[in-house]
From TrEMBL:
It is found in: Mitochondrion inner membrane; Mitochondrion intermembrane space. InterPro entries: NDUB7. It is a peripheral membrane protein. GO terms for cellular component: mitochondrial inner membrane; mitochondrial intermembrane space. It comes from Cuscuta campestris. PANTHER family: NADH DEHYDROGENASE [UBIQUINONE] 1 BETA SUBCOMPLEX SUBUNIT 7, NADH:UBIQUINONE OXIDOREDUCTASE B18-LIKE SUBUNIT. Keywords: Disulfide bond, Electron transport, Membrane, Mitochondrion, Mitochondrion inner membrane, Respiratory chain, Transport. Its main location: mitochondrion. This is NADH dehydrogenase [ubiquinone] 1 beta subcomplex subunit 7. Residues 74-106 are annotated as: Disordered.
Length: 106
């Protein structure tokens, strides 16, 4: 389940994620950090001040994935704008206006 164009690799295998009962929506490149986080949460009865290191590393990984996707989307949009402008002929240089039009008063 590799994501094309992503710099992060899948570390957790499908078997590990199934065994840890990771929901389908969370099976991404950060799942290897979610598995120990969920184990810690269960062991600590979901107390919010526990498992801070695990949660921080998981959230940082997710943030990096989101930022990477945003950069990819921005590049895609710029590429589409360039293709559209070249298709419409907007990349041509504009015709310069005369510095002194014929009907302008001097």
């Amino acid at each position: 389940m590799e994501v094309p164009g992503s710099s992060k690799k899948m570390i957790a295998t499908q078997e590990e994620m199934v065994e840890a009962k990771v929901p389908l929506g969370y099976r991404d490149q950060c799942a290897h950090l979610l598995i120990p986080l969920n184990k810690c949460r269960q062991a600590e009865f979901y107390l919010p001040w526990k498992c801070e290191n695990e949660r921080h590393s998981y959230e940082k990984c997710e943030y990096e994935l989101v930022m990477e996707r945003m950069l990819q989307m921005q590049k895609l949009r710029q590429q589409q704008q360039q293709e559209e402008s070249s298709r419409l002929g907007l990349n041509r240089r504009p015709i310069p206006l005369a510095s002194n039009p014929a009907n302008a008063a001097s």
